[in-house]
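My current task is to audit a protein record that another person submitted. My question to you is simply how this chain folds and whether the tokens agree. This is what I was given:
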Amino acid sequence: MKKLTLAVATLAGLAACASVPLDTSALDRASSAVDRANDAGSVEYAPLELRAAREKLAEARIAAEERNGDLANRLAAESLVSAELALAKSDAARARERTRAQRESNQQLRQELQTDSGREQ
């Protein structure tokens, strides 16, 4: 009787794991996030994070094809997080570049003003 109860419990547990529905919107969100990160220059600014996002998305799609909703959902969520991190790093890097360029421009203007004010005296 104990063996039968254990077998039934095991089968019920496996059935519960296999019955997690696939969240296709999670795959769509992850895919969109990977596209946004790619468009934002993550290939240059956050290549490791972008690669991780792409790999997790590919794995999520495979899990979805195999009807493993639990795994597909988890991998899609991981892909989304990696893509958002890549996007944030890219945005920060571009902001640093704009700041550096603006500082250089400001310095050049200061030098021109100093040169011009020296001529007027």
Helices lie at 2-18, 24-39, 42-45, 47-65, 69-120. The radius of gyration is 26 Å.
